[in-house]
UniProtKB/TrEMBL annotation:
GO biological-process terms attached to the record: bacterial-type flagellum-dependent swarming motility; chemotaxis
Family statement drawn from the similarity comment of this UniProt entry: Belongs to the MotA family.
Pfam families reported in the protein's UniProt record: MotA_ExbB
Localization in the cell: Cell membrane
Residue span, MotA/TolQ/ExbB proton channel domain: 100-213
Claim: Cell membrane is one of the keywords in the record: yes
Keywords assigned: Cell membrane, Cell projection, Cilium, Flagellar rotation, Flagellum, Membrane, Transmembrane, Transmembrane helix, Transport
Transmembrane segments: 6-23, 30-48, 153-172, 178-201
Stated name of the protein: Flagellar motor protein PomA
Keyword Transmembrane helix: yes
Gene name as annotated: pomA
InterPro entries named among the record's database cross-references: Flag_MotA_CS, MotA-like, MotA_ExbB_proton_chnl
Region (Disordered): 249-268
Ranges in a coiled coil: none
UniProt source species: Terasakiella brassicae
Length: 268
């Protein structure tokens, strides 16, 4: 895994632009208000607790954050290359020899271990599809939680503004206090809009995209494991697995293990 620099850069740029916009027009200290902060963050957190189970929040939020801020270092074509290398070894030395491998993806490694243990295809399919479903479900719940935060934060920002306006209107004996009180009342709306549109909703969208990518990648890995378990011919294996790649990435592998099947087919 490696950091997703797009997510990090987006947050840094967004926060920088907001901070510079504030600094060019006024003192940044006036944008800090503890009661408004507590209304927005506390209310949003409470609403999230009501919508989702406590266990789901504390499990799915870390998973969601990790998925949003990291990307898979290995690409789909790397898994095809690794699968072809393993099936060649299995055909040459026996399926048990693939137990020792350098696979870094734990899902792929587990599937290969099941093959090395001699498990049948139906058992492997059941185990891997269940694990994929649970992993995707946790990521999807993480996305739903961040979207719920994005929906609740502006609402509680508006609630804080209404509270501030009520307090202001109840104390209008001194007109000089109206301006500062109005500014404080509007700060909660600012907090809610920033939390929703700069953090929560973009992360929710990123998680939905990552969840779809992860599902496609795990489906490819499962198919790789099936081919290894059946000790498929490398040429046929390449033809079966390549459709899982985007069209531009097909037939571009470099190195012997990935292209050996295709090269052999051309020579034949």
């Amino acid at each position: 895994m490696q950091f997703d620099f797009a997510t990090i850069a987006g947050l840094i740029i967004g926060l920088t632009v907001v901070t510079l916009a504030i600094l060019t027009g006024s003192d940044i200290a006036i944008f800090f208000n503890i009661p408004g902060f507590l209304i927005v963050f506390g209310g949003t957190f409470a609403a999230t607790l009501i919508k989702f189970p406590l266990s789901g929040i504390f499990i799915s939020i870390p998973i969601g954050i990790r998925a949003a801020f990291t990307v898979q270092k290995e690409k789909p074509r790397d898994y095809i290359r690794q699968a072809i290398q393993l099936v060649k070894r299995a055909r040459k030395n026996g399926i048990q020899t693939i137990e020792k491998n350098n696979l870094k993806n734990p899902f792929f490694k587990k599937g290969v271990q099941l093959c090395a243990d001699g498990r049948d295809l139906d058992y492997i399919r059941k185990i891997l599809t269940q694990e994929m479903a649970m992993a995707i479900q946790r990521e999807e719940i993480g996305g739903k939680i961040f979207r719920a935060i994005g929906d609740s934060a502006p609402a509680f920002g508006m609630f804080g503004t209404i509270v501030g306006l009520i307090q202001m209107l109840a104390n209008m004996q001194d007109p000089s206090t109206i301006g500062p009180a109005m500014a404080v009342a509007l700060l909660t709306t600012l907090y809610g809009v920033l939390i929703a549109n700069l953090i929560a909703l973009p992360i929710a969208d990123k998680l939905e995209s990552k969840s779809a990518e992860d599902k496609a990648l795990r489906s490819l890995i499962i198919e790789c494991v099936f081919q290894i378990q059946q000790m498929q011919n490398p040429t046929a294996m390449l033809e079966i697995l390549e459709p899982h790649l985007p069209e531009k990435q097909r037939q571009i592998g470099s190195g012997g293990s990935y292209t050996a099947g295709r090269d052999a087919k051309k020579r034949g």
